Amino acid sequence: MKRILFITLLLTIVSIINAQDVSVANYSGEGQNGTKILNIIGDSYVKNHKRPVEEAWHYKMAKKLGLTYNNYGRNGGCVAFDRTHDGKYNFGQAMYTKTTQMDPEADYVIIIGGHNDAFKVKDNKDSLIMFRDSLTLLITNIKIQCPHAKIGYVTPWYCDYPGFKQVCKTILKICKQHGVPVLNNYRKGSIIKVRDEEFRKKYFQGPKDTAHLNNAGHDLFLPVGMDWFLKNIINNDEECHK
């Protein structure tokens, strides 16, 4: 219990520091040609791993909808865990500490994360609590940095590894508490059949890859992602401003 309280206190302190460091000096206050702004923050689902960002479904969606697109993805990133010294790689700080990098004038913010957290969490209850508290901070910090933005969350795929079920269940719970719509991909009915090797050969960046879609995979998922975005983020935002 003392360990959990210490972790929660530490995360709270970082949140306060982030809030104090918010700066808008590098932003113009509007999108290109006055268009609405979409910020995407996350892991390699956002950065698109070894392929160009321009192939990602969220990039294509932004272009179709005429949105200014800002990508804040980093390969290997976690919502909760600092990975700046994770073996020989530097996957960066936890997402909840990086929100001050985002355009504060964003109209929409989409979070795509949890895949790497799931591998860290596995069956560890303390790590799951850390993920829960970090996700709460991430949402809170986004609201501070982007006060006018409608926030949405896109979960990891339906991967058959320890930690994924618990992490995705936590995402649904925390997002519901904060009024954040979720595109839940952790389900058997998902169009992305990540557990099917033949499907991965066709739609992922490699047959053993369980995270990164290739161009064809992004095209397959694009209608699903766009439909969710239009119904739950844009329409919801318009209703709130009537």
Topology:
Elements: H1 2-20, E1 37-42, H2 44-47, H3 57-65, E2 68-73, E3 108-112, H4 115-121, H5 125-145, E4 150-154, H6 164-177, E5 182-183, H7 197-203, H8 215-240
Parallel strand pairs: 1-2, 1-3, 3-4, 4-5
Helix pairs in contact: 1-5, 3-8, 4-6, 5-6
Q: Would you kindly provide a written description of the structure presented here, covering whatever features stand out?
A:
The chain is α/β, with parallel strands linked by helices and 242 residues long. Helices cover 44% and strands 10% of the residues. The protein is built from 8 helices and 5 strands; from the N terminus they run αβααββααβαβαα. It has helices spanning 2-20, 44-47, 57-65, 115-121, 125-145, 164-177, 197-203, 215-240; strands at 37-42, 68-73, 108-112, 150-154, 182-183. It has a 5-stranded parallel sheet with strand order 2-1-3-4-5, sandwiched between helices. Helix 6 (164-177) links the parallel strand 4 (150-154) and strand 5 (182-183). Mean pLDDT is 88; it is low at 4-9 and 11-29.
User: What order do the strands of the largest sheet run in, or round the barrel if closed?
Assistant: 2-1-3-4-5
Low-confidence spans: 4-9, 11-29
Structural class: alpha/beta
Helix content: 40-55%
**Number of separate strands:** 5
Oligomer: single chain
Tell me the radius of gyration.
17 Å
Average pLDDT confidence is 88
The rough form would be described as: globular
User: Number of DSSP helices?
Assistant: 8
Notable traits:
single chain; 242 residues; alpha/beta; five-stranded parallel sheet; 5 strands; 44% helix
